[in-house]
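SEQUENCE AND FOLD
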Amino acid sequence: MEKSNRFLLWVFLVGLTSALCGAAYLFILNRLSLLMGPQSPFFGYLSHGLILVAVGVAIALLERGVGPAGNVEMLVDNIHEMGGNKERKNLLCLIPTSLICIASGGAMGPEAPLVQTTGSLGSWVSDLKNLGVSEKRTLTITGMAAGFTVLFGAPLGASLFALEILHRRGMEYYEALLPAIWGSLCGYVAYAALTHLDLSPIWSFPYPAQAFQLRDFGFSILCGIIAAAVAASFILSNRFLSRAFKIFPPLARGATGGFILALLVYFSPYALTFGEAQMNALAASVPTVSFLLMAFIAKFLGTSTTFSSGWKGGFIIPLLFMGLCLGRFLHLEIPQSQEILLVASLMAALNAGVTKTPLGSVLVVTEMTGIRLFPTTVLAVMTAMLLTSSIGLIESQRPREK
């Protein structure tokens, strides 16, 4: 019992410290965004284009001078092999690199860098206390869950997300579930106290739910099929573009990505930023079919360019943005459908199709949007998972070690 209580203390410590790290990271990110991002008062197409190219050069220089930044794929692999992240020195490059990438308007969010940081924090605490591999894995997952919670404001969804992202077909390190939830809740309370966070959802979608009809199940299956097709396209396009960018030398790779992003801004402003601040305005607008398609394509291309050219960030929130665009587009094409069901289904299913996090995606969308948990959302997610089970973007996802 004493050993169990002591371990629970480390869980609380990791959750609390992860929240403090997350708050500091987001504070710096917000300040940098005001200086060098699209929302800067000094924004201009030419000047911002130069900033994007300069950031691409800075990425290569930082990695050459400090060392590689690592990625979520490496973290997932280390969790399977050793229980946690052994390459914590990668954070020396990852943190500054990701901050300038996201702050300048790269179309990827802070979720991956922050989760790598908080997961590494859990690994460090376990090494400090000489814990075993299983305990180290649990504390690493707890740190990841707390990091997701800071970004999503969704403790339960974040905990499941952190567990599921390690695998292709659902949660397998089940023994880490309750510690992850405890750590997430501790991180949530600490972050809420620091930032005066309230209980309202991050996004508000003004689409009323109507009486359920049997055809809604058919629409949810359709959403799952569409999400699977888009998820597969996103995965394959990123694989292709990653190989294409390797043609360029490392110093020019990030700069080329920044130049392409600068060109994409002329196509649509939705090509820049990871989309969190754009969601409420998009949800409340009265758009046309062409507008929604342009917003979706712009975010798809912007995120793919950002990811493939070596910029640092996460693609979860951009995928949710794309799902919102597709849900609203499908409702315009099928007016007899319920918009709220389509939006929730496509946001969750598209994210699950890429990240392989069915339960986490459903709960994160539910908690972040305030949308009631619909059976149709679950059906769409499971359809997308079934159709994309053989393809994934995180290659190190695999079953737990026997």
